[in-house]
Structure formats: structure tokens, C-alpha cells
Amino acid sequence: WTCSYSSITMLTTLYSVLVILTLASTSTSSTSHGLCDGFIRTTNTSILSPTIKSQEIKSEGIDCEIANLPTIEIIRCHGYPAKAYEVTTEDGYILTMHRIEHGKSNAGDDFWRPVVFLQHDFLGSSADFVIQHHSKSLGFILADHGYDVWMGNFRGNTYSRKHATLNPSRDKHYWDFTIDEMAHYDLPAMLTAVLEETTEGDLMFVGHGVGTTAFMAMSHYRPDLSQKIRLANLMAPMAYISNTKSPMGLIAREEGILEFFYNWFGDGELLPSNTVIDCLASMFCKNPATVGLCSELVFIFAGFDSEQLNLTLMDSFMHHSPAGSSSKTLLHLLQLINSGEFHGYDWGSKQANQEHHGEEGVPTYHLYDVESPVAV
Questions:
Q1: Pairwise CA distance, residues 147 & 204, whole Å
Q2: What is the DSSP-derived secondary structure letter of residue 183?
Q3: pLDDT for 225-250, tens place per residue?
């Protein structure tokens, strides 16, 4: 394995960040967030359901402009109605969706609201759409403009870290998933559940980053759902991503890098949100003298673009992201960068690929399979 000096520097930096955060993530649970801000951040009450169930959660007596809260409490803190729904996928993963049924001034059963579904990027969560002021957060803006807003969470993140039979803290098989499973199981389960709950015939879709990747790949597995999408709005769409300019993109092309990452991070959880990371965000991302450290972490994954980064949001952002995923999802992205194609995850052998993908092996995804209207 040979690489340039600059690649070694970037690889060393990225490796150090991932090791530190991964080690930190194994030391504490995700139920104590907000501890370093002076109060405990609580997670949602568990609801096990074979299909879909909801709960209504309230946040009272908290200053939401400075509070470090879960998505459901952020929504209520800003004065909007909020519900949490759980849906179980065909392969047993229990996912949480968050809903803003209406805005502050347009409540009432006589008001017809088109449904819009928002799906986050890699290592993100539903919080991504509500962490800013309600005049700037997409989830709140859509609700105020008359939409019934639903926000999904992919398997393995802060809000979807459950399974019908597997324990994510003890069973490594829980983390045997990639973007393929998000496209094959997660999005179809959530979209179908939303349509059933609302009794609407179709919905608007808004995806960001990997949320768009899973949406475009979903047509390979569930072409019937294209008819249920009135319009797919794809923000920073990711299909053919070999031209990515981030450090992740540069090192992905180095010989032996996929084997290197698999040996270190390939069989478990990647960057979950927890108390240690939460406290680091509180200590470093609020202080103007150290907020640059937090922005550098974002640049490692997303690429350097300081003009497009609002440093005043770093504290809020880093309390919610990274929200966790599987290491294999990162490896899947590295494979896509390295190959320049749009395809499923290569599990390393014909037998393994057939076990995960079926007799045809690694699937190739085609954009022409996406038959719903699309806006980029």
C-alpha cells in the first residue's frame, strides 16, 4: 500500500478522529445527553410495534433557544405539535419517525395538508431539520406553510437503535447493514407507514445526501413506490460520487484503504451520539476560540467550504451529529467513491454477496428506474 505524503497526513488525521470518537462512543450510553449543559436529555419511551404506533411527548419549562434536547422536545419547545412514531421493517429494525402535524397558525381539521417526508444525510437524524430557529429550520417552515411534516431516521442512529430480536450493544449482526438496507427496507417501511397513517394517496419527499442515495436506490427494490411520490426534492444528491472533494474522497482512492478501514471499523457501530461527544461539543463548539476544531471535523467528512458553514450553529449541530450509523455504511460510501459507479455494497465474496443480495450478487442501481418527478 503506497500513498502520497498529503494522503498520509489526511489519513492520519481522519483515523485519529475516528478512533477517538469510536472509543468515546463505547464508554457511555446515549441516555444522558445534556448532562454537560446542566440538565439531563432524555430519550423517547420505548414502544414496540409490529407495524406503527405513536406517542405524544411534551417539553415544558425549558428555554429551547439554549437547550440541548432530542428532536421531539425541540419541536414542542418551539411551540409546535409533535408526535413520535415507530415502525418495524421487514428485517426487524425498529425505526422512529417524528411528525409536525401543522404550524403555529394553521391548526384545524378543516385544513387539508399535503404530506412531506424529510430524510437525513449520513450520520444525521431528524434533528437536522429542526435545530435552527423556527424561521430557518426546514421542518418548521414547511409546517407553517401548511404541510403535514414527517421526518425519518435510518436504522442505527440515535432514534432508530432498536431491533425486534437483536441488541445493538451486544449483537454485531445488528450492524450488518449498508445503504442497500436503507433503500430496501427503511425508506419503504417509513413511507408506507406515513401513507397509511395519513390516508393520503401520495406525498412529497425531501432527501439530503445519503437520504437521496437511498431514495434513488429504492426504485431497484420497490418500483411501485414511485407512483406514491408526487415530487422528490433531492438536496446534495449522491449517486455517482467519484468526484467528491472531501478528504474522505481523496483517501478513498488510495490502494488498500478499504481493507484498512474494514480492519479497524468494519464490523460494528460508527460514531454514535453519546455523553462524551455531547460534552466535547459543549466544551469546544460554543467557544469562539475553539469552534474551529468542530468545523474541521465537519470538513473531514463533507469537504472544506468555510463560506457555506455557519459557525454559530456548530454547538447545536454537534450535539446532534454524528448521530451514528454502521461502519459498513461508511465502507459502502468509500466503495462508491472508489468505483465511480452506483451499486450495492460488495461484501467481499460471491457467497457473501449472494447471501445479502440474492443470486444475482451486487446490484447495480440505475437512475432511469426513478420514475417519480424529481427536483434537484
A1: 10
A2: I
A3: 999 999 999 999 999 999 887 777 77
Neighbours of 17 (CB within 10 A): 15
Nearest CA among 178, 59, 183, 180 for reference residue 130: 59
Cα angle: 373, vertex 374, 376; to 5 degrees? 165
Three-state DSSP class for 155?
Answer: coil
| Residue 6 DSSP SS3 | helix
- Compute the distance between CA of residue 311 and CA of residue 286 in angstroms, rounded to an integer: 9
Angle at 292 between CA 286 and CA 298, to 5 degrees: 100
How much is the mean pLDDT over the chain?
82
Tell me the average pLDDT across 325-348: 94
Burial readout 75-89 (b: 16 or more C-beta within 10 A, e: otherwise): bbbbebbbbbbbbbb
CA distance 359 to 375: 34
